[in-house]
Design brief:
The protein has 676 residues and is α+β, with helices and mostly antiparallel strands. The protein folds into 3 domains: 265 residues, D-Maltodextrin-Binding Protein, domain 2 (3-Layer(aba) Sandwich), CATH 3.40.190; 96 residues, no CATH class; 234 residues, Dipeptide-binding Protein, Domain 3 (Dipeptide-binding Protein, domain 3), CATH 3.10.105. Helices cover 28% and strands 17% of the residues. It is built from 19 helices and 27 strands. The strands form 7 sheets. Strands 10-11-12-3-13-24-14 form a 7-stranded mixed β-sheet. A 6-stranded mixed β-sheet has the order 16-23-15-22-20-21. It is globular, with a radius of gyration of 26 Å. 50% of the residues are buried.
């Protein structure tokens, strides 16, 4: 659940960013499919279909790099790729985003465009029914995509566990098949976010393949008991937690069990930087799959299918309707091949390979890897120095925003120190935002001025960006009746203008920013003090009304924390009155106590229409109102670096690496045969 303590774990419908692909490709000739050349095939699909031959100016393979030996991180290992088949944060190039298709996909600004839907889906009657008509196309096994497949996919998705970062279905109550190509989605209320976040997030797969895959899982796990699997997973977790951990004795036992369940974990993915196998990494991941199998075996019907999803062969050897079909996978990579019957036309590059990559970037320079995403997590790519010299190495850097932002939250309830808007404005004018953000993030963060994902369709790019002005800040403070004391701090009625900045102690960037804000504020006569606290200490008191400081019954004045955001701001619940916390709603979202009838009206109107242009207008107006009232000071949003060889382009020209979702038309990407 999205919350003030972390920029991870979104509320349902808050963020579903998927890199699906729109129609594209160019006219090509057909040739038989050769055997894969990226790596030996550990698993292949039968009867490869004819595929497109790219123009001679283009290479036949686009290679996306990953770092082996990082199985517990979202990006990196094959385990991460497989989990990404239903993961909320699938806005990278993944096997999933190439193989699967959804009714809608998200374009360069994360706005929706039809993919498997035959034109825009239409609201019916009072807007609580959304009707989608499916185009005439086939899956990779050449069976037709039908409304029944669509309904089945959404019925499974309704049962996914959102708390485990699987996309949910929001307000969906029921899916009705109208005819072979028409499906109705019955919602509990008018909900435009169902269109913008749910429809693009649910991949449409052939029902008969899913059911066969689940039947194979059931057969393979025959005589396995849910309770025994849970007991084993508990034992593994307990052994890992020991000091020192005990992991090696379980490796072979676990490997045999996983094979029976239907899961393959490559030991290469559980290797340290030097290539040494680390058993604790292996059994830690294995424990999660074993526990998932236990849940599935304890369920029935569609609940069991949903619980077992990431254990099924349909997830590991996917059959979709996207621009690329699965060919093979082993410890050294995953190979996909252009699907000639993709609804948007055949992909412009014949093969898409996911290959192991050196973390120093050398594979990009020598051309054995074309795209290396989220490179900012690796030391050689961090900061601005690498970017400055990248082009001379034949590399371009994209810096798409990560979903989420950091902000300094005010308690604006009547009687609180910062209930006075002028004091909030004054503190904002005290902060040297650009300098502080650069110091805190090391150049991989951008100053934030609003809550919406930068560059997305609902973003307001022209929000005020106040520069530091201590003199103007002092004028506001004095205009509010405060008098400068002998110690350089303002007072009023015997009260010093001072407060603690509560933040999480386990996130160094937040602590550093709190310290810098306190230093900046001193120049304006405001006495702020950084107050780092352990997350465990924040949990019982601060996160529920009345949001007291740890170890105190006094409500907070300032909190520095993070939120998830999205291209669709949805109910805008950070700022609406209905989400203000109180005794009856102690864990609502708006813990600042901020109320503004203008924001309420705009947010309500934005959630009452399916007109996307009108929604964008309403949200932009709401962002301007929030900026004027300053219930929080937006601080920064982290960027991620994607390193791309300059040889990578599109059939239409150079890649637009400025777009927040620059990978969205993967099927139009090409690798120039000669690097410019």
């Amino acid at each position: 659940m999205r919350g003030p303590g972390s920029a991870a774990g979104p509320r349902l419908g808050a963020i579903v960013l998927v890199a699906a692909m729109l129609a594209g490709g160019c006219g090509t000739q057909q040739t038989p499919t050769p055997a894969p050349s990226a790596s030996p095939a550990a698993a292949t699909l039968a009867a490869p279909a004819p595929t497109a031959t790219p123009a001679s100016a283009y290479a036949d393979t686009l290679r996306v790099g990953f770092i082996p030996g990082r199985p517990e991180e979202f990006f990196g290992s094959f385990w991460g790729f497989r989990q990404a088949s239903v993961a909320v944060f699938d806005y990278f190039i993944r096997p999933r985003s190439a193989v699967h298709s959804s009714l809608y996909r998200l374009d360069a600004t994360y706005d929706v465009v039809p993919e498997l839907a035959d034109g825009p889906c239409e609201p019916l009657g009072d807007g609580t029914v959304i009707r989608c008509r499916v185009i005439e196309t086939t899956f990779h096994d050449r069976t037709p995509v039908t409304a029944d497949d669509v309904a089945y996919a959404f019925q499974i998705a309704q049962r996914w566990d959102v708390d485990n970062y699987l996309p949910g279905t929001g307000s969906l109550r029921e899916v009705r098949v109208v005819d072979a190509r028409t499906v109705d989605f019955v919602l509990s209320s008018v909900d435009p976010t169902f269109v913008t976040t749910v429809l693009p997030s649910v991949s449409i797969l052939p029902r008969h393949v899913v059911e066969a895959s689940f039947a194979a899982f059931v057969a393979g796990t025959n005589n396995l008991a849910s309770a025994e699997l849970t007991k084993l997973a508990d034992a593994i977790d307990e052994e890992i937690a020991r000091d020192p951990p005990v992991c090696s004795p379980r490796v072979e036992e676990v490997a045999v069990l996983l094979e029976r369940i239907g899961v393959t974990l490559y030991r290469e993915d559980s290797a340290a930087a030097g290539g040494t196998f680390e058993p604790c990494r292996y059994v830690r991941v294995a424990s999660r799959f074993i526990r998932q199998a236990a849940v599935a075996l304890g369920a029935t019907g569609l609940d069991a299918v949903a619980a077992a999803w990431q254990l099924l062969s349909i997830d590991w050897q996917p059959v979709g309707a996207g621009p690329y079909r699965f060919v093979s996978e082993d410890a050294n990579g995953i190979r996909l091949e252009a699907w000639p019957d993709y609804s948007g036309g055949p992909a412009s590059t014949r093969f898409l390979d996911f290959v192991p990559t050196n973390p120093d970037g050398s594979d990009l320079v020598d051309g054995t890897v074309d795209i290396f995403q989220s490179a900012d997590t690796l030391a050689p790519f961090q900061g601005t120095a690498y970017q400055a010299g990248a082009e001379s190495r034949g590399i371009r850097i994209a810096s798409p925003p990560e979903p989420g932002f950091m902000a300094l939250h005010f308690n604006v309830r009547p009687g609180s120190l910062f209930a006075d808007r002028d004091l909030r404005l004054a503190l904002q004018l005290c902060i040297d935002l650009e300098r502080d953000v650069d110091a805190v993030t090391g150049g991989i963060g951008e100053p934030a001025y609003g809550p919406v994902l930068r560059g997305s369709w609902a973003d307001e790019p022209d929000l005020p960006k106040p520069a530091r002005d201590p003199a103007a800040a002092r004028q506001l403070i004095e205009g509010a009746g405060w008098t400068l004391g002998a110690d350089g701090i303002y007072t009023r009625d015997g009260i010093r203008l001072g407060a603690d900045i509560l933040t999480r102690a386990d996130t160094p960037k937040r602590v550093k920013m709190a310290d810098l804000i306190a230093k900046d504020a001193r120049d304006c006569g405001i006495d702020l003090r950084s107050l780092p606290a352990r997350w465990a200490d924040l949990m019982p008191a601060f996160l529920t009304f009345p949001h007291a400081l740890p170890g105190s019954d006094r409500p907070f004045d300032l909190y520095l924390g993070g939120w998830m955001n999205t291209a669709d701001p949805g109910p805008f619940d950070w700022f609406v009155s209905s989400e203000v916390t109180d005794v009856e709603h102690p864990d609502a979202v708006n813990f600042m106590g901020f109320t503004d009838p203008v924001v309420d009206r705009l947010a309500e109107a934005a959630m009452a229409t399916y007109d996307q242009a009108e929604r964008a207008r309403l949200y932009r107006e709401a962002q301007r109102e929030v900026a004027a009232q300053v219930p929080m000071i937006f601080l920064w949003a982290d960027d991620t670096y994607d390193a791309v060889r300059t040889a990578v382009a599109t059939v239409d020209g150079p890649l637009d690496l400025e777009a927040p979702n620059w990978t969205w038309q993967l099927e139009r990407m090409v690798v120039l045969a000669s690097n410019p």
